[in-house]
Amino acid sequence: MFWLRVLERAKSVQHLLVNSFPHESGQQHEQRSCHRRPQPLPIGPLMLAHRTSNLSMWEEDRSCLQWLEQHPPGSIVYVSFGSWVAPLSPERVAEFALGLAAAGRPFLWALREDDAWRCGVSGGLPGNLPGKIVAWAPQRPAVGCYLTHCGWNSTLEAIQHEKWLLCYPVAGDQFVNAEFILKGWGIGAMLDGSAGRSAVEDGIKRVMATEEGAVMQERLVRLRRRVMGECGKSSTAMENLQGFFDGMNGDQRQKKYQKEEEIEKHLLCSDLHNFKISKRSLDSSGPDLTGPV
Questions:
Q1: Long-range CB pairs of 167-176, under 8 A, 24+ apart, other chains included
Q2: Alpha-carbon distance values, 114 to 19, 35, 65, 136 (Å)
């Protein structure tokens, strides 16, 4: 129902600026010249290629920076379920922790400092586990794989930084995003079954330590190049955005011209009206040429 309401409201607008990218590389959106309303214009991804500030609603936990820098690029599993997903059950959180431990990879787990989220690991992680739990983490090259809820911003960020995706969608459009990740682009894998410890372990090994994962990485490189462009800026997005601005400016100019024409017409009508009044006045006050001389 939520998306139906969004689509219904969208009928009243002329353009929709979408934080996404077109299906084909290098093409401006083919509906720009179409008269249908609304016209969706892909202008994404709306992310800085080298951002220095935190764009999340949650504060980054930079206490893990030194730990991250100690690991080689692409070696760490980053676990995050976004800003809006409801807390997972304590049993599920515990299963994820055991699966991460069994995979034998260093991991960084972004768990909000909230009892509802952390009760599954309320005692902390055992000292021998190669992982850390933080409130929120900055992006670093050491991360190789996202274990993610498949939120759209997380998906775009993974593509931007060429990270494998291990998918655990929870609600809403996350399932649609997961379908694109798995079948549309082939850059990730879905957690099998009930997402227990063995599924987490197998999923991490599948994307990070198999030939299938190597193929996913090649696809990621190609997809990033298509989405972000060679220089980290999507030419298609820039063209669409510039076209939108030009169209808006053109509409404003057209409205200005129409208003000026209306003013000119009004002044012309006013002048003509005044001329007729003056003529009638002259006619009524002039000499009577019809009487006797």
A1: 167/191, 168/81, 168/195, 170/81, 170/85, 170/86, 171/85, 171/86, 172/2, 173/3, 174/149, 174/150, 175/150
A2: 30, 49, 22, 12
| Domain that includes residue 152, residue range | 58-230
The residues facing 292 across adjacent strands are: none
The verdict on 102 and 163 lying in the same domain is yes
| 103 and 212 fall within a common domain | yes
Domain-ending residue, one of 183, 211, 230: 230
What does the alpha-carbon distance between residue 39 and residue 243 come to, in Å, rounded to a whole number? 12
- Which 3 state secondary structure label does DSSP give 222? helix
**In terms of domains, do 117 and 34 share one?**
no
Does 50 fall in a domain? Answer: no
Q: CA 45 → CA 66, 100, 158, 162, distances in Å?
A: 29, 30, 11, 14
Same-domain check for residues 64 and 13: no
pLDDT tens per residue, range 180-231:
999 999 999 999 877 789 999 999 999 999 999 999 999 999 999 888 876 6
Which H/E stretch holds residue 129?
Answer: none
* pLDDT tens digit sequence for 227-284: 887 665 666 777 888 888 887 777 665 555 565 566 556 555 665 556 555 655 555 5
CA distances from 236 to 28, 87, 259 (A): 6, 38, 34
* Residue 149 near residue 183 (C-beta atoms within 8 A): no
CB 43 within 8 A of CB 16: no
Distance in angstroms (rounded) separating the CA atoms of residues 214 and 200: 19
16 and 84 in one domain?
Answer: no
The residue type at 78? Y
DSSP string for residues in 18-40: ESS--SSTTPPPTTTT---SSEE
Tokens representing 120 are 């599954």
Q: What one-letter code names the amino acid at 43? A: I
Q: Are residues 219 and 149 both part of a single domain?
A: yes
